[in-house]
Amino acid sequence: MPKHMWTSACAVAALVAMQATAFAQDPTIGNATATKNKVEGVMGSKTEPIAKGTNLYTNEVVRTGDASVADLKFLDDSTMNIGPISEVKLDKFVYDPGGSGAVIINATKGAFRFVTGKQDQKTYQIKTPYGTLGIRG
Length: 137
Known about the structure:
The protein is mainly beta. Helices cover 13% and strands 47% of the residues. The strands form two sheets. A seven-stranded mixed beta sheet has the order 3-2-5-8-9-11-12, with no helix packed on it. It has a five-stranded antiparallel beta sheet with strand order 4-1-6-7-10, with no helix packed on it. The longest helix is centred in the first third of the chain and has 18 residues.
């Protein structure tokens, strides 16, 4: 194969690899344990489908469509169930078993259920359009 064809093939391979890792620029904070129907992850202007096993990232928006749901599990074993026609931004996730972690989730639309994990309950903060929920006790 001529040298210029190898260069073109390498450039195409690098472009594909960059697109596949576009979401991976932020740290992985968990993954989807189950999804039904249309579930998407949005980072900036890029949207990708979320299926069982898909990694989740800081600053990712998880969006569900009509009759769609998602079950998410985070590194600290906290879980989140997202209902149909919902949108949740995973603003900040710092897992520190020593106690100085932080979890901030912005639930902007729809229904959700969040169960805390192994971190101190004071590290969790859920923001909604109507107020902020903090975990106590």
